[in-house]
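Structure first, sequence second, as always.
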């Protein structure tokens, strides 16, 4: 008897991770005794069982397994030797492993297949890979096997063409299609009903999926259906003698096993009657107890194929009920049952049940015959079941029997949650179900491919387990439908499985959050990963990144802040950081000696920055040690590209919020060993130290020599140590560097008067954005031809003492192009001959004199190839606007402009002559080819003894386009006629005064240009 009760089960939602089966590492003796195993994981089992099928398009599929030995996989040779199927990787170590099967597009019109063989020790497993021809119809299965009871089969069809479904004509009686989804370019599921097989022989049917040209055949095999079935299995007999007729339905000759009793016998007339209607004589029962026995009808060749007749004979004065238990659903029902009695009886319904059970029998209940009793069961609107016992009583005695009636409540299916979230690596979810009905479970649509329900033993399971396969694709959602027994109600459960690709930023504050993120097993993060290792809770401090060992790519920034980690283990699979890689610290990162753990990182798309962090509000530490054990960059051997800036920033001494802060950082860093494969820095390269004599940074850094493959820097190249120098860094050699798109800034001990020489050897540099020397730096770049912006040689460096600008010029002897200003501090310049290849200056060409001149400069020879100056040609010798310091011996040996013989166009011309400047200068000789001045032309002289008397070299000057044309103080200049051609078209203001002769523009144009 089945009692109804309402199941109320505590909500449970358990997500458990799949176990990782590690391969044994026992010694060789134990290995010899160990049984070699290969265990497929997840969906891979079906590939080993049924093979792997691809459409005609290119594609890939992952095969995963565990093994206890080293493994390799091979692809058999194909006919014709064509390589259309490959696997990667082809081998691996013991433990959890896998490989990817890749196929190229099949452009042929025939299917093709190849065998993969996975070998571990002496064990081999094979997978047959099949690729369909072009315009293929792909079936999940091409055969189904059913028992004789029949049922439903589901056939999934994947195709890119329209198709029709045809059932073989002779099979249509027992194979019937339920759904007929034949859409093109989609995946559809076809459902067929298979009728019970009542034939004695097994049968085979065929279903065709076709588009007219392509046909796929599905075979349906159904077991034989030997049948022996009684039309009635129980006979309730009164105590009187009686002959009963037993009707039997059978499709074979059956045998009869009679019971070993004397009150049941075969009627003599049976042999002459139908073989499927048998007659039996039941003798009268003289006892006061009922009796029963069984007759068995069976197949002689298969005794399990049988049916049993049960005969129950009443005692004297008995009430016999045909069926004593009834279970009905919650709807309104009518129950009908037989009462065999040879006495009068009545129906007694308990008062508590009279509200929902009603006797609607209308016939008399007298006589010694079989009676029908009808009970009406009202609808149950509650979810709770109910039950009652209805008594059938003798009206004159205590003889009685009972009927037990139970009615189900309204079917209810209540899962503990409607939505379950799972991690991408899969695992098991448990659904607690509160229900009052039997039910079935159906996994809907494509979710069948990645959600499975394990087979369970026993009866009804109200904690449902589902296995979620690993998700190697995008985030996905599946649905599970739970349907009540009579399809009266249903419940939908949604399973949302994250992808290994996380969309959005991840912020980790402490170890607990780190463990949670690690558990999810993300492989790619499309956003920032920001890790703050210390959050004022020492128990939650991060000391290891091991749990992040699945991440291969971060499409945002990776920020590590204040970590007390020993290494970067856990990031071993990380190959690319699309954004910035920032490591910042305030009194931390003091256990790291290298970058071990980042072995596979080959690209940083943004900045790579290591820096001392400024204190946050409330942080009081004023003396800080950061990166105190870092010696080199070992561990980054595969890093090839930094897309942004590469900066190491040690603050040293720093004032912040009116308080001094001191940092001793990077003081064990000796070299850039580990970055030998780095080829590109897309932004600037900067080493910055702002320390004083006590709190200095980078104490041991002596070389950048390990940057042996660095070819390009997209921004500036800068050594910034304005207070105290990075003392050991005297020579920088970058032999493969060809391009710096920004400036070279060298400020190594500039403000504190450091006089140590810095040698910057860039022997293969071909292109430079600009160069500004602000410390004693000698640039050796003999292949450098182009500087796109400014070139300052010796400017401001002279403030820290004598600097040999000639050595700087000597290292720039191949330059042909300067895009903006070229400014030269001529203190110590002996010759401009190293600039003999210079052809173009896009800005001003400025000649400055510092605090001391050696008077070795004899001429401007060296500028013979210079044809164009886009800005002004300026000599600054004491006029503050020229940007120089006053002197009285500037350019004292220069006599003319010899050296500028090919100069044809300048943006302006300015000479500012103080007392004693250009003391031997007499002529503009050398400017004979000057044709165009696009700006002003000014000469201002403060020395009455200045010797300029000849400007005849300007005879070929055609245009002056500026607003001012002025010559002042040339006391020996009396002939202005060489300016006639230029003044012919001049539209600005022309003035002459304090010269040997001061003609007006009109006088010069009228032939009165000389005295």
């Amino acid at each position: 008897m089945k009692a109804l009760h309402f199941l109320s089960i505590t909500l449970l939602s358990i997500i458990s991770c799949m176990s990782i089966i590690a391969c044994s590492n026992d010694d060789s003796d134990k290995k010899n005794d160990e049984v070699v195993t290969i265990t497929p994981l997840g969906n891979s089992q079906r590939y080993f069982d049924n093979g792997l099928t691809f459409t005609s398009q290119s594609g890939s599929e992952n095969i995963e397994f565990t093994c206890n030995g080293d493994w390799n996989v091979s692809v058999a040779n194909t006919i014709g030797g064509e390589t259309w199927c490959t696997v990667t990787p082809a081998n691996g170590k013991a433990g959890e492993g896998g490989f990817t099967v890749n196929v190229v597009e099949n452009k042929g019109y025939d299917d093709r297949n190849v065998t993969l063989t996975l070998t571990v020790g002496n064990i081999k497993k094979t997978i047959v890979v099949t690729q369909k021809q072009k315009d293929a119809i792909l079936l999940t299965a091409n055969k189904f096997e059913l028992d004789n009871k029949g049922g439903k089969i589901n056939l999934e069809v994947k195709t890119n063409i329209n198709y029709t479904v045809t059932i073989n004509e002779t099979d249509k009686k027992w194979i019937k299609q339920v759904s007929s989804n034949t859409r093109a370019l989609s995946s559809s599921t076809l459902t067929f009903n298979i009728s019970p097989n009542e034939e004695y022989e097994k049968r085979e049917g065929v279903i065709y999926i076709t588009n007219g040209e392509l046909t796929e055949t599905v075979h349906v095999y159904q077991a034989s259906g030997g049948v022996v079935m009684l039309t009635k299995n129980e006979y309730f007999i009164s105590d009187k003698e009686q002959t009963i007729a037993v009707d039997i339905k059978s499709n074979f000759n059956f045998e009869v096993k009679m019971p070993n009793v004397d009150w049941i016998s075969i009627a003599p007339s049976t042999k002459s009657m139908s073989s499927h209607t048998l007659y039996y004589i039941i003798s009268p029962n003289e006892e006061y107890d009922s009796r029963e026995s069984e007759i068995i009808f069976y197949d002689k060749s298969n005794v399990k194929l049988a049916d049993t007749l049960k005969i129950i004979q009443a005692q004297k004065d008995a009430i016999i009920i045909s069926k004593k238990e009834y279970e009905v659903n919650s709807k309104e029902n009518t129950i009908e049952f037989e009462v065999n009695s040879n006495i009068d009886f009545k129906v007694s319904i308990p008062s508590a049940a009279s509200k929902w059970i009603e006797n609607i029998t209308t016939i008399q209940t007298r006589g010694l015959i079989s009676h029908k009793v009808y009970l009406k069961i009202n609808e149950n609107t509650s979810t709770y079941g109910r039950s009652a016992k209805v008594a059938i009583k003798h009206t004159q005695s205590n003889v009685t029997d009972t009927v037990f009636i139970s009615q189900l409540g309204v079917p209810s299916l209540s899962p503990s949650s409607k939505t379950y979230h799972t991690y991408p690596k899969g695992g098991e979810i448990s659904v607690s179900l509160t229900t009052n009905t039997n039910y079935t479970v159906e996994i809907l649509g494509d979710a069948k491919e990645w959600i499975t329900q394990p087979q369970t033993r026993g009866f009804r399971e109200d904690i449902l387990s589902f296995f979620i396969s690993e998700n190697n694709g995008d985030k996905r959602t599946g649905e599970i439908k739970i349907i009540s027994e009579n399809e009266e109600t249903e419940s939908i459960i949604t399973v949302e499985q994250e992808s290994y690709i996380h969309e959005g930023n991840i912020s980790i504050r402490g170890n607990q959050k780190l463990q949670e993120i690690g558990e999810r097993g993300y492989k790619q993060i499309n956003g920032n990963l920001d890790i703050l290792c210390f959050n004022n809770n020492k128990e939650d401090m991060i000391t290891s990144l091991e749990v992040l060992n699945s991440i291969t790519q971060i499409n945002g920034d990776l920020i590590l802040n204040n970590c007390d980690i020993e290494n970067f283990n856990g990031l071993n699979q990380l190959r690319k950081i699309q954004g910035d890689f920032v490591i910042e610290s305030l009194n931390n990162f003091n256990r790291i000696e290298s970058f071990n753990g980042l072995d596979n990182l080959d690209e940083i798309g943004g900045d790579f920055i290591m820096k001392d962090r400024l204190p946050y509000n409330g942080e009081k530490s004023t003396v800080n040690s950061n990166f105190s054990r870092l010696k080199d960059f070992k561990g980054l051997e595969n890093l090839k590209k930094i897309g942004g800036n590469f900066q190491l920033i040690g603050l040293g001494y720093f004032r912040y919020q009116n308080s001094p802060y001191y940092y001793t950082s990077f003081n064990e860093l000796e070299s850039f060993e580990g970055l030998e494969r780095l080829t590109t820095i897309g932004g600037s390269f900067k080493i910055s130290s702002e320390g004083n004599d006590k709190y200095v940074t980078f104490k041991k850094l002596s070389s950048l020599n390990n940057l042996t493959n660095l070819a390009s820097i997209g921004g500036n190249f800068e050594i910034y140590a304005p207070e105290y120098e990075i003392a050991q860094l005297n020579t920088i050699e970058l032999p493969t560097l060809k391009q710096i798109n920004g400036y070279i800034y060298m400020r190594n001990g500039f403000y504190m008067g450091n006089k140590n020489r810095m040698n910057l050897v860039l022997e293969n540099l071909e292109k430079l954005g600009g160069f500004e020397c602000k410390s004693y730096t000698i640039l050796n770049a003999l292949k450098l031809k182009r500087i796109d912006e400014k070139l300052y040689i010796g400017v401001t460096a002279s403030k820290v003492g004598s600097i040999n600008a000639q050595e700087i010029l000597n290292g720039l002897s191949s330059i042909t192009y300067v895009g903006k200003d070229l400014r030269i501090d001529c203190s110590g310049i002996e010759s401009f001959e190293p600039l003999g290849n210079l052809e173009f200056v896009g800005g001003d060409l400025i000649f400055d004199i510092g605090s001391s001149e050696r008077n070795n400069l004899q001429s401007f020879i060296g500028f013979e190839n210079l044809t164009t100056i886009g800005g002004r040609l300026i000599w600054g010798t004491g006029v503050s606007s020229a940007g120089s310091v006053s002197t009285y011996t500037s350019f004292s040996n220069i006599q003319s402009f010899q050296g500028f013989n090919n100069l044809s166009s300048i943006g302006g011309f300015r000479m500012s002559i103080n007392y004693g400047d250009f003391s031997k200068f007499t002529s503009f000789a050398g400017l004979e080819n000057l044709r165009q001045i696009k700006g002003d032309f000014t000469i201002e002289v403060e020395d009455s003894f200045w010797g300029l008397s000849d400007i005849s070299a300007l005879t070929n000057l055609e245009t002056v386009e500026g607003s001012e044309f002025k010559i002042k103080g040339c006391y020996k200049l009396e002939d202005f006629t060489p300016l006639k051609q230029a003044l012919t078209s001049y539209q600005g203001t022309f003035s002459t005064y304090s010269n040997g002769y001061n003609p007006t523009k009109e006088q010069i144009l009228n032939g009165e240009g000389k005295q």
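Margin note: The longest strand covers residues 302-313.
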